[in-house]
Specification:
Pfam family, one: PhoD_N
CATH architecture of the largest domain: 4-Layer Sandwich
Structural class: alpha+beta
Radius of gyration: 23 Å
Largest sheet: 14 strands, mixed
Region (Disordered): 339-362, 517-544
Protein name: Alkaline phosphatase D family protein
Domain Phospholipase D N-terminal: 67-163
InterPro entries: Metallo-depent_PP-like, PhoD-like_MPP, PhoD-like_sf, PhoD_N, Phospholipid_Metab_Enz, TAT_signal
Number of helices: 11
CATH class of the largest domain: Alpha Beta
Length: 544
């Protein structure tokens, strides 16, 4: 990597540029053309393309960056830059020719690109839906950068990213957000408009980036222009790519991706509802389901800014760890790929010998050991498990019977005990679980046992959905049921939105951001509650 400054045509940006004008700043970027000489290797790469193919020659595509740009999986010296060339994302093939295309990229320390620190050319391969994952190395730790791409005579929107801080570095505070469950057919992405306006150091997405069910008219979204291929339940590469093309065409989502680096994991709907290892929701033939899982995994990788290795079959390691100095360690989990099948037909049920069976697991043995190894010794002030499904019991009593989810950790009690007991035994400081999945805000103490006076060993924030569940409600029957059935449950809300966090060595502060209506675009979010956790005390202090 070269750290020598290279002067390129400057783009005029006033000192008063706002985040909104920056994030929507595409036309101005297009005025500053890169030249092949500036981007070493570009001319040579393009010379290998067939005549008339996409490049700086005769073919020009209208907005090949229709799905925007993104960055992700930051390290102290590296970040992944992502885009996908798809001028027609709702058509099979994305409107691209079936040839490899050079994509020029550059990264700078200023949004005017007056101080470019690196640039190069990546290849968008049709085998990967013309997606690009650039691992930019040699960056400075804990620094903001700006990046952009060029292909086919067009420049991309500009993205903002930030590297992490090395383990042991003294980091004063961290601001981040997380989101989950963005069912396109259930509502609008109002939460992302709000999220993109904030100065987040990193954003987590905790699962259900797409929903795999057939798209049916429900009066919320206009689906009249969608083709049968787009609306169909996906099983193949082309079908999954169309579904991602639909979701990622949403401008609020693109702006949120461009505002900060993302760390993305998956839950069930990226493949099939409530799948478990080799078992589908409908108990399809395992060979057929693993084939579907392989297609889904590949397309998830194609559309996320992840440094996870591209899968070559139905297996893909997505659990990984990110440290932010001596302040926070994030362990990003996978609670789908290695789990035992759900018991009791995956219906809310009482806990019993089956849920307590020590041979059953939600993480698999290897990942369980990896989780505990990351807590021993505990190198940071806060230890966060970022994952998919709720660890806490969220019980509801019906006809005198205490029922809990069989899909969450409450259906895998032995796994839960091993992690929580192991964290306590290792002296893990300030254990926090952040999850999605349940389409509501549900904040609880983490306890080894939820049916006696077991002390809290950590806290859990289950964050609400971006769109899944339509408008929702400030409080509902489930919320009231949790309050009456569990002393560990401290706050609930079932509206759409996301969670914003600021954490320092002394305190964790969660802000609940929600909207009163999400079945229409252009709706504003507001602060519903603030919840603080003091360092050293696993307690949730709620201010509504």
């Amino acid at each position: 990597m070269s750290n020598t400054r290279v002067d390129i045509p400057a783009i005029s940006i006033s000192r008063g540029t706002t985040r909104r004008s920056f994030l929507t700043w595409t036309a101005a970027v297009s005025a500053a053309a890169f030249t092949p000489a500036m981007l070493g290797g570009t001319a040579e790469a393009q010379s290998s393309l067939p005549a008339g193919s996409l490049g700086s020659g005769s073919m020009r595509l209208d907005n090949p960056f229709a799905l925007g740009v993104a960055s992700g999986d930051p390290l102290p010296d590296s970040v992944i830059l992502w885009t996908r060339l798809a001028p027609k994302p709702l058509e099979i093939g994305g409107g691209m020719p079936p040839v490899a295309i050079p994509v020029e990229w550059e990264i700078a320390t200023d949004e005017a690109f007056g101080s470019v620190v690196d640039r190069g050319t990546a290849i968008a391969d049709p085998a990967h839906a013309h997606s690009v994952h650039v691992d930019v190395k040699g960056l400075e730790a804990w620094r903001v950068y700006y990046y952009r791409f060029r292909a086919g005579g067009s420049e991309s929107p500009v993205g903002r990213t930030r590297t992490s801080a090395p383990l042991g570095a003294d980091l004063g505070s961290l601001s981040f957000a997380w989101a989950s469950c963005q069912a396109w057919h259930d509502g609008y992405y109002n939460a992302y408009e709000d999220m993109a306006e904030r100065e987040n150091d990193v954003i987590f997405f905790l699962g259900d980036y797409i929903y795999e069910s057939e798209l049916k008219d429900n009066g919320i979204r206009d689906m009249s222009a969608l083709s049968a291929d787009v609306r169909a339940e996906p099983y193949t590469l082309d079908q999954y790519r169309l579904r991602y093309g639909l979701y990622k065409s949403e401008e609020p989502l693109q702006r949120a991706h461009a505002s900060a680096p993302w760390i993305v994991t998956m839950d069930d709907h990226e493949v099939d509802n409530n799948w478990a290892a080799e078992i589908s929701q409908d108990d399809d033939d395992p060979v057929e389901f693993l084939s579907r899982r392989a297609q889904a995994f590949k397309v998830w990788w194609e559309h996320t800014p992840t440094r996870v290795t591209a899968p070559t079959g139905p297996d893909m390691r997505i659990y990984r760890r990110t440290d932010y100095g001596n302040l926070v360690r994030f362990s990003v989990l996978d609670t789908r790929q290695y789990r035992s099948n759900q018991v009791h037909d995956d219906k809310n049920s009482p806990q019993d010998a089956e849920t307590a069976d020590p041979s059953r697991t939600i993480t698999g043995d290897e990942q369980e050991k990896w989780i505990l190894d990351g807590l021993d010794p505990s190198p940071t002030a806060w230890n966060v498990l970022a994952h998919q499904t709720v660890i806490s019991d969220l019980p509801r009593v019906k006809d005198g019977q205490r029922n809990v989810s069989m899909d969450g950790w409450s259906g895998y009690e032995a796994s839960r005990h091993r992690i929580l007991d192991g964290a306590a035994e290792r002296g893990a400081k300030n254990l926090v679980s952040i999850v999605g999945d349940i389409h509501r805000n549900a904040f609880s103490e983490l306890r080894r046992d939820y049916e006696d006076a077991s002390p809290a060993v950590g806290v859990e924030f289950a964050g609400t959905s971006i769109a899944s569940g339509k408008d929702g409600a400030d409080s509902d029957e489930a919320n009231e049921g949790y309050k009456s059935a569990s002393e560990a449950f401290k706050f609930g809300n079932a509206q759409r939105g996301y969670i914003a966090v600021k954490v320092d060595k002394n305190e964790w502060t969660t802000e609940v951001r929600v909207t009163d209506k999400n079945t229409a675009p252009g709706q504003k979010l507001h602060r519903r509650a603030t919840v603080t956790v003091p360092s050293g005390r696993p307690e949730l202090n709620v201010q509504e």
